[in-house]
Amino acid sequence: MFNFDFYNPTHIVFGKDRLAELDTLVPKDAKILITYGGGSAVRSGLIDRITKSLGNRKVEQFGGIEPNPSLETCERAVAFIKDHDMDFILAVGGGSVVDATKLIVLGAKYDGPVLDVLKAGVPAVPTSMVPEAVPFGTVMTLPATGSEMNNGAVITYGDGKFPVFSDLVFPKFSMLDPTLTFTLPEKQVKNGVIDTFVHTTEQYLTYPVDGRIQDRFAEGILQTMIEIGRQTVEEPENYDVRANHVWASTLALNSLIGAGVPQDWATHLIGHELTAAYHLDHGITLAIVLPALLTVKKADKLDKLVQYAERVWHIDEGSKDEKADAAIAKTREFFESLGVSTHLKDYDLDETSIERIVKQLEEHGMVALGEHGDITPDVTREILKRAL
Ligand code: NZQ
Ligand code: ZN
């Protein structure tokens, strides 16, 4: 196992009928800005309920944060916070609202363009540059990204999507009420199942380092998602099933399963370019890229693929190679069983899209991806050809 630090200060407030507790979670004298998305939280009445829970506190709202949030939107929110001297932010929505809020709370404490903060986002925004962030909490309405309990965000700028990390952007608290996800469109639930699954494989399907706890946590998340994936799509108001989905999404990307083990993330980084170029949902890009990537990288990942085959899919027959192939096929079948197509052509993309994605990756410096840094542009090309 590799050396690691594990740090996660986010307070999780899980379960139904807990909105009133916002009154104790949010500082009494805070001037609060509620950030939200395109309006789902207004239409469902959630914003009203939250405002009520906040009692007499001064509350302002900043809506219109779009999926795959843009730098420009963050800049507008930062200007609002600086003008109005807001001192606590409450993000209400899915990963996009929470991610945007993370850049916003850093940008609001930086005396310069928000773009500087985004550009300094990897490996992490230096505290010498941004020493503090405006504190914020979240009310999460979409189980997928894990953004409710991690220190990362993904922001769209120009023709790319760029990660930004900082330990200052762990939410102070995240309220995870599965009933708030009942209004999700079916498509977003499918995306959430796939995102959760692929966050787990990015940290599990690499090479063995005897991280037994991490492996078994990861296998538990994968098995749970396989068990409940279709059910949570087909029975959106089944509380217990959705509760498991919500908690799995959080645990899949809160540093726990990735501590001390190698991580891949190439599926995500290639997927981000597909979203930036063709506006495909994040979850869809992962369903396209992962099976193709596992096929191309089978030899390097063989030991973990066999472990995945045996422990997650209970495939006990055949050679190592056959087990790996069968597990990859099962993975694709799982995504397809949710009603999510796993080929580029299903989204009207052909060979020409491959060169565009490879070019974008090169322009963004993404030329050595994966746990060994050996997914070069040529390897990406091969992966995308497999994904056609
Ligand atoms: O904007 P509104 O009107 O709220 O509608 C949203 C949006 O259209 C809707 N929605 C959310 N909750 C709802 C709801 N509709 C009805 N009822 C509800 N309860 O769902 C749509 C999609 O929302 P979005 O926040 O974009 O989805 P998601 O949570 O999947 O977030 C995707 C973003 O997260 C990034 C992705 O790249 C993408 O930009 N990621 C962030 C990560 C992180 N911070 O750690 C890791 C991920 O790998 C991912 O890259
Ligand atoms: Zn993801």
TrEMBL record:
It comes from Veillonella rodentium. InterPro entries: ADH_Fe/GldA, ADH_Fe_C, ADH_Fe_CS, BDH-like. CDD domains: BDH (cd08187). This is Alcohol dehydrogenase YqhD. Residues 9-178 form the Alcohol dehydrogenase iron-type/glycerol dehydrogenase GldA domain. PROSITE patterns: ADH_IRON_2 (PS00060). GO terms for molecular function: alcohol dehydrogenase (NADP+) activity; butanol dehydrogenase (NAD+) activity; metal ion binding; methylglyoxal reductase (NADPH) (acetol producing) activity. It is an enzyme of class 1 (oxidoreductase). Its EC number is 1.1.1.-. Pfam families: ADH_Fe_C, Fe-ADH. The keyword Oxidoreductase applies. The keyword Transmembrane helix does not apply. Residues 192-360 form the Fe-containing alcohol dehydrogenase-like C-terminal domain. Keywords: Oxidoreductase. GO terms for cellular component: cytosol. It comes from the Bacteria.
